[in-house]
C-alpha cells in the first residue's frame, strides 16, 4: 500500500506541468478539453461501526471531528462528463482519530453553469489517537458521493466561478463507517 501512496504522490507532482500542456487543447468537435487543478479545505466527522473484525476496522465504535485538506485535478472528458483524481489529508481535532490520508478517483457530471455532481472510489488510511502513539494504521477501500455548488448556480450574476461549496459523504470498507464533510474548493 505504501507503493500506491508513493505512486499517487509522484503522479500528483506532475499535475502542474500536465495542466500547462493540456490547457486549451481542442477535441474534434471544437470543444476545449482541459485539466482543472483544485485545492480545498473541509471539515466534518467520521463515525465507525462497533462491529468487530470487519475489514481491519478496530473493534470499538470510534469517531472524531476533523479538518481536511484536499488537492486534485479534474479532466473535462466530453460535454458535461468529468473524471479526476484527488488526494486528501485529515487531522483529528477532537475524538478518537489522530489523522487520515488517502487517494481517490472521481467521475462526475457538470450541472448548471459550473456545479458538479460526483462519485468517487479510492483507498484510505486511518490512525486512531485512542490506540496510542505507536498504533498501527487501519486502511481500506473508500466510496463516496457529493456535490460541488458554484455561486454562479446559486443565484449569482457571474457566468462562472472558481470557488465551489462542496458537500460529500464517504464510507470506509464494506460500509462500516459514515463520513459527512463540507467545505470550500477552489479551482485554478
UniProtKB/TrEMBL annotation:
Recorded superkingdom: Bacteria
This protein's record includes keyword Signal: yes
Keyword field: Signal
InterPro entries linked to this entry: OMP/PagP_B-barrel
Span of the signal peptide: 1-21
Designated name of the protein: Opacity protein
Species assigned in the record: Sphingobium lactosutens DS20
Lineage: Bacteria, Pseudomonadati, Pseudomonadota, Alphaproteobacteria, Sphingomonadales
Amino acid at each position: 500500500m505504501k507503493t500506491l501512496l508513493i505512486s499517487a504522490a509522484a503522479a500528483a507532482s506532475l499535475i502542474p506541468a500536465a495542466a500547462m500542456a493540456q490547457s486549451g487543447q481542442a477535441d474534434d468537435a471544437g470543444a476545449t478539453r482541459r485539466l482543472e487543478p483544485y485545492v480545498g479545505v473541509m471539515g466534518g466527522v467520521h463515525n465507525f461501526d462497533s462491529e468487530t473484525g470487519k475489514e481491519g476496522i478496530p473493534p470499538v465504535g470510534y469517531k472524531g471531528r476533523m479538518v481536511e485538506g484536499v488537492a486534485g485535478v479534474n479532466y473535462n472528458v466530453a460535454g458535461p462528463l468529468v473524471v479526476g483524481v484527488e488526494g486528501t489529508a485529515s487531522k483529528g481535532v477532537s475524538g478518537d482519530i489522530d489523522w487520515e490520508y488517502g487517494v481517490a478517483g472521481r467521475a462526475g457530471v457538470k450541472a448548471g453553469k459550473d456545479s458538479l455532481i460526483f462519485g468517487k472510489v479510492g483507498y484510505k488510511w486511518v490512525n486512531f489517537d485512542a490506540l496510542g502513539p505507536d498504533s498501527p494504521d487501519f486502511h481500506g477501500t473508500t466510496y463516496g458521493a457529493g456535490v460541488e455548488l458554484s455561486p454562479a448556480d446559486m443565484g449569482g450574476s457571474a457566468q462562472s466561478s472558481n470557488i465551489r461549496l462542496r458537500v460529500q459523504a464517504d464510507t470506509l470498507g464494506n460500509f462500516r463507517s459514515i463520513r459527512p464533510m463540507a467545505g470550500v474548493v477552489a479551482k485554478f
